[in-house]
TrEMBL record:
All copies of domain HTH marR-type, residue ranges: 9-145
UniProt name for this protein: DNA-binding transcriptional regulator, MarR family
GO terms of biological process kind: response to stress
PANTHER family xrefs: TRANSCRIPTIONAL REGULATOR SLYA (PTHR33164:SF64), TRANSCRIPTIONAL REGULATOR, MARR FAMILY (PTHR33164)
Claim: Hydrolase is one of the keywords in the record: no
Keywords from the named record: DNA-binding, Transcription, Transcription regulation
Species this chain originates from: Mesorhizobium australicum
Pfam families the record matches: MarR_2
GO molecular function: DNA binding; DNA-binding transcription factor activity
Length: 160
């Protein structure tokens, strides 16, 4: 297999960044009617996938400061999207759970995400699609520094 040229190496980061930015922008355009910000969508998806996640863990997963997560959770709780519960083992820990409203929205967002991903991969053969996914997984694995795949998968998610 040929080595990467300097030009390819210089472009890799920009290409990955641009692809992620455009996917995120397309999703945000589709989801704009929901009344939720991109940060709120990311939180909603995390909570839907991991009900009962500790609030402090959400800050880690979303890569934002705990105070920012607290404010985000406050707004989403006020809107009926999520609910906080105390951890039975440690009253200082606040667990975040989805509401019926957020579970319904999550079902819709999965459909929107599928449309965005299909548009992104349009024109690629099934083999090229799989190679793209395999390549991105390898990059994530190579750079994860001991993080679990679930931790890495949440970065840049949009939403699902």
């Amino acid at each position: 297999m040929p080595l990467m040229t300097n030009e390819d190496r210089d472009r890799l980061g920009f290409l990955i960044h641009d692809a992620a930015r455009l996917i995120r922008r397309r999703f945000e355009a589709k989801a704009s009617g929901s009344g939720l910000s991109a940060a709120q969508w990311r939180l909603l998806v995390r909570v839907a996938k991991e009900p009962g996640v500790p609030q402090a863990r959400l800050a880690e997963l979303l890569e934002i400061e705990p105070i920012s997560v607290s404010r985000l959770v406050d707004r989403m709780e006020d809107g009926g999207w999520i609910e906080r519960r105390s951890d039975a083992a440690d009253r200082r820990v606040r667990l975040i759970f989805p509401t019926d409203k957020s579970r319904e929205a999550y079902g819709k967002v999965k459909s929107m995400v599928g449309e965005v991903y299909e548009a992104a991969l349009s024109g690629l053969s099934p083999e090229a699609r799989q190679a793209t996914i395999d390549g991105l997984k390898a990059i994530i694995n190579n750079l994860s520094d001991g993080e679990t795949p679930q931790d890495c998968a949440g970065r840049g998610e949009k939403a699902a």
